[in-house]
Amino acid sequence: MAKKEPKDFSSLSGQLESFIESLDRDNEDGDEALTPDERAGFEKLIRLAARSLEGFSESWARKLFDVLREDADTWRWAVDDFYSREAVDNIGGIVRRFLRLSPVLVGIIPSKDVSLYLREATRCYIYGFFEATTALSRAAVEAGLNEYLKRRLGSVPSQKLMEKVKSANAWKLLTSASAGMAEEVAKAAGMVLHQRPAKSEGLAFDTLVRARGLLLELYQE
Question: Are 91 and 14 in contact, with CB atoms under 8 Å apart?
């Protein structure tokens, strides 16, 4: 489990967390308030439903959703409550990861595809989706390299990513440092996509930084 960020009451997120806690304390005084054990059980149920909806589900999940949706208003409130608390809890990590990054300042504006891959890879890192960060970093690198080679050579060689990287390095179109960054990005993505997910913030950050460094070279002219 990720370490929870300390509360900063000078920040809006700290104030929001404090406000939610005050609501919980006020609710505890009511006759219909949930006990801590009841709330924990309720949150576990909603988390189970969320996992069933976000990914694959077993057949019992249909029965779970049928029961939860019998009272549509309560179900909507429960989902809103669950995701609101989760979002506030995650803000500290989001801010911390955002502040680790530096802008990629380029002279040539990349295509919409390259920009989309890089932006989504970066946002996945910021929001804590580390496997997606790694996979999308590779997509950004390959799309950027293809665009660069087409700009320099007039066409894109029919090769796999690493073969294109080695060719570009041999033709002095890529520095050895950038070729090395591309290789590390490809290796990390290959591990995530073809072996097993690696829920590592460090790997995701390093992969994203390498992808951004390579793209900086490709579009700095």
Answer: no
Tokens of 54: 């976000």
158-173 tens-digit pLDDT: 999 999 999 999 999 9
The architecture (CATH level 2) of 112-218 comes to Up-down Bundle (1.20)
Secondary structure percentages of the chain, helix, strand, coil, to 5? 70, 0, 30
Helix residue ranges, H only, the chain:
12-28, 36-54, 60-68, 72-99, 112-126, 130-153, 161-170, 176-194, 201-218
**pTM of the predicted structure, to 2 decimals:** 0.82
- For tokens 């939860």, name the residue: 68
Domain ranges of the chain: 12-98, 112-218
Specify burial of residue 185 (Cβ count, 10 A radius: 0-12, 13-18, 19+). buried
Tokens of 46: 């909603």
CB 75 within 8 A of CB 68: yes
- CA-to-CA distance for 169 and 185, rounded, in angstroms? 16
Burial class (CB in 10 A: 0-12, 13-18, 19+), 189: buried
Question: Which 8-state DSSP code applies to residue 3?
Answer: P
| Tens-place pLDDT, residues 96-127 | 999 999 999 999 999 999 999 999 999 999 99
